[in-house]
Each structure stands twice: as C-alpha cells, then as structure tokens.
Amino acid sequence: MRVLGIETTCDETAAAVVETDETGRPFIRSNEVLSQIAAHAAYGGVVPEIAARAHVEVVDRLVARALEQAGLKLADMDGVAAAAGPGLIGGVMIGLTTAKALALVAGKSLIAVNHLEGHALTPRLIEQVNFPYLLLLASGGHTQLIAVRGVGDYVRLGTTVDDAIGEAFDKVAKMLGLGYPGGPKVEAEAAGGDALRFALPRPMLGRPVADFSLSGLKTAVRLEAERIVPLRPRDVADLCASFQAAVVDVVVDRTRTALRSFHEKAGYPTALVVAGGVAANQAIRRGLTRLAAESGLRLVAPPLPLCTDNGAIIAWAGLERLRLGLVDDLTVAARPRWPLDQSRDTVAGAKA
Ligand code: ATP
Ligand code: MG
Ligand code: FE
C-alpha cells in the first residue's frame, strides 16, 4: 500500500511517500521538507500570511519532488493524505486543497489527517510499537500527554494551561537575545552553564492532574535577567542551564503523573514515546530515559527529522487510516482547531 502525504499546517511545506510491504512493514520512499525558518526569523516567530504564501508557492514542486524521489507516479498511490488541521488556516487549506485535487484527478482515496495524529503514530513508522502507549508530544505549538489506544482512539491525560514547551524555549531565547528558533540555541548555551545558579520555579510539580504550566517559569527567567546589568555571556549560559533543568524536572514529573493515571483510561502502556521538536533536546531525552527505566518501559524517540513536522508522518497516519477503511470525501473541511481526543471516529478494536 502506498500513500502520498502533504504537510502545511505551520512553517514547513512537506511531501512524502510511505509504503508498506505484504507484511504491513512500512518504508519511507521519500520525505521532502522545505522549512520557512529563514523567512520568519526576522520576526522572532511564524507570521501566518508569510507562511501561507510560501506554502502555495512551493507545494506543487514538493509533491512532484517527493514522487520523483520515490521513483513513483501519482497513479501508483493508493491514497493521498493531507494534514487537515490543527494549524494556521491559510496553510492548512493549501495542503488539503492540493490533496483533494490530486485525489480527484487520479481517482485515489483522500485521507484528512489530524496533524497531531501524525506525531502520535510516528513510533509505529520506525519500529513495531503496539497499542496502547503513552505519548508526550512537545513542540512549538503543542504540549500534550496522550494515551494512544488505537488509530483514531486517543485520550488526553494532560496539556499546558499556557505556553507550549517549545514556545517557552523560543521566548526565553528571544529575551536573552539568542534568536529563533530558540530550542537549539538555549540547549547549546545550557551546555556551558551552571544549572544550580538560579533557583527557578517548577510550576505544577506534584499536582495530581498531568497538566503543564510554563509561563511562570519563563517570567522568572525574565526577572532574573532584568536584575543582572550588564548581562554577560556567563549569565546567559547559567540562565539557560537553570531554565532547562527546571523544564526537565517539570517534564519528568508531569509524565510520571500521566503514567500513574494511564491504566484507568487505557490499560498498561507498552512504551513511553516522545515526539515533536522539543524531543530534540538531549537533557529532556535523558530525563525521560530515566523515567522509562524506573517505570519498566522502553523509551521510543523517533529520529529528529521525524520528530519535527514532515510529510512522512502524515503519509503514515494516512496509510494507517486507509488500511482500516477510514477515508474522507471531498467535502472534508480544514480545521484550525482540532483536539486529538475529539477525533471524528473511534475505531473499536483497531489494535493492529
Ligand atoms: P507544531 O506545534 O504544529 O508541531 P512547530 O513547528 O512549533 O509546530 P516543531 O517543528 O515540531 O513544531 O518543533 C519546533 C519547536 O521545537 C520550537 O519551539 C523549537 O524551539 C523546539 N525545539 C527544537 N529543538 C529544540 C531543543 N534542542 N530543545 C528544546 N526545544 C527545541
Ligand atoms: Mg515547525
Ligand atoms: Fe507538529
């Protein structure tokens, strides 16, 4: 089975071809990503109008390139999938409309994928991971702990009440003059800093519900930075190290709390999975590796190009849906907001 996947929900335009062999084992035939980071860097974040224009300019070319790299034609596909939300509405409409047009002209199935479902099913693209498992999805736009019970069957155990984790990294980087995107810059600074110098808060630590709050921590970094005049490179490194250490403590504590409540909603997890751009952070990975070991679980972390936004995760989620017969018609709408646990269908027994 083969699916072409298109991703345009944020600041990456991406297209990919994923196929499965007779045994159902997946292969990524191509995965073409064009990041708009340079176009948005001057503004310190993603500008929706710039993003939409950039998507419309390159999406056709990326689809052509993904097919070419795969050595296949549109006619060879079984389905065309696109992320239909959540995300910036202009971008989402461009990707979804492109997928509709391709599916219509080639007479292929259309699959409208929830972008978060793409992240949620990624571990199954790289190795055999059975349902249910606990997913920590942490990116610039999302921070969620999700019990993944099956395709289309998700229970949210926790989320952020304010900033996403990646967003907090980006804002801290911006206030310290490190540039955008902030995550990698803060991590690099933290490597040479003293994590014990600043006693920063660990919001939500010990709370019984697995929710996050990051804005108080971010503000605490700002207040410390404002007290130090002039702010020297040493101070910036120490602030980054102290901030990152606080984030790791919060992430491990919140994920442990979600693991405790997991069995009530979904039975016993087969793995702990981390995805989203923040999963690139080595300190966070180490914290989660410790937690997984302490809980007798394995940690599955997709390779970095599959952690951040790309077309292969959309193609794969599309293929998982297609092989269960979950297809969409041409009237399906783009959804700027689309919580994963409000999936339009729940597939009873879809545990394959
Ligand atoms: P969405 O939330 O819709 O998936 P996004 O573009 O924000 O969109 P990603 O591309 O998955 O999500 O991730 C980007 C985010 O990950 C940014 O906020 C970035 O700062 C953060 N990030 C990347 N590398 C690191 C790192 N090493 N440490 C911490 N955060 C990081
Ligand atoms: Mg991105
Ligand atoms: Fe994403």
UniProtKB/TrEMBL annotation:
Places the protein is found: Cytoplasm
Gcp-like domain location: 28-316
Enzyme Commission number, as recorded: 2.3.1.234
Keyword Acyltransferase: yes
GO MF entries: iron ion binding; tRNA N(6)-L-threonylcarbamoyladenine synthase activity
Keywords assigned by UniProt, alphabetized: Acyltransferase, Cytoplasm, Iron, Metal-binding, Transferase, tRNA processing
UniProt record, GO biological process: tRNA threonylcarbamoyladenosine modification
Record field: catalytic activity: L-threonylcarbamoyladenylate + adenosine(37) in tRNA = N(6)-L-threonylcarbamoyladenosine(37) in tRNA + AMP + H(+)
Cofactor remark: Binds 1 Fe(2+) ion per subunit.
Cofactor: Fe(2+)
Enzyme's top EC category: transferase
Transmembrane regions listed in the UniProt entry: none
Family according to the record: Belongs to the KAE1 / TsaD family.
HAMAP family reported for this sequence: TsaD
Descriptive protein name: tRNA N6-adenosine threonylcarbamoyltransferase
Organism of derivation: Chelatococcus reniformis
Lineage: Bacteria, Pseudomonadati, Pseudomonadota, Alphaproteobacteria, Hyphomicrobiales
